[in-house]
Amino acid sequence: MHHPTSPASPATPTDLDADRAHGRLGSLTVVDVRSPAEYASGHVPGALNVPLDRLAQAVPALREAAARGELLVVCQSGNRSAAARTQLAAQGVPALNLTGGTSAWAARGHSLDRPAGAPAKPVWAMDRQVRLTAGSLVLIGLALGLLVHPAFQLLAAGIAGGLVFSALTDTCGMAAMLGRLPHNRTTTCGLPLDATLERLRRG
Predict the structure, then answer these.
(1) What is the rounded CA–CA span in Å between residue 15 and residue 72?
(2) What gap in Å lies between CA 10 and CA 116, rounded to an integer?
């Protein structure tokens, strides 16, 4: 005897666009996973800065925050925050990702906050730094391969291979390395990570 199947329940959304996020901002805990310097250059109002390479350290505090209400993770374009959401999900911490990141947020006309004392000249977004670094290394490798020794062309090949690997795995080792440079780590404003984690715990 045939029994009708019940309709499948809708999947839990994992992304939130800028307009919907703006409308729900008061009920969300917003976590910006960019570097401190990127965060200082302009962030979603109320966002707390937990750089992606420090996310593992922040998991217990983020778990406590998620138990009180929804988390929204944010970056510049939505790629790093999507990676952060995946990492958190693997630890049993649910989170939403801001589609298009702060770029989409600003493009929709929503304001960005800048901490007091933020540098007048904002640091480049990480994806722009990666493109500059990768492109420069490829050009240097090709030039040295032509002018000095063909073996230097392996540098260009290595960078190209790294970019392909980055696309296939949705990770970026170069971004992680660049994020540790002083101009990305050091700011004269914003909370230290320990203070940020305490705010996440307390709500």
Answers:
(1) 9
(2) 43
Helix (H, G, I), strand (E, B) or coil at 34: coil
Residues 102 and 108: beta-carbon distance below 8 Å: no
CB-CB contact of 84 with 73 (8 Å): yes
Cα 74 from Cα 125, distance rounded (Å): 13
Q: Inter-axis angle of helices 55-68 and 193-202, to 10 degrees?
A: 20
Element counts in the chain: helices (H) and strands (E): 10, 5
Amino acid symbol at 199:
R
pLDDT tens for each residue of 22-74: 999 999 999 999 988 889 889 999 999 999 989 999 999 999 999 999 999 99
Q: What is the pLDDT of residues 95-149, one digit of tens each?
A: 999 999 999 999 999 999 987 665 556 666 667 667 777 788 888 888 888 888 8
Joined together, the tokens standing for residue 144 give 């040295």
73's enclosing H/E stretch is strand 71-74
The pTM of this model reads: 0.69
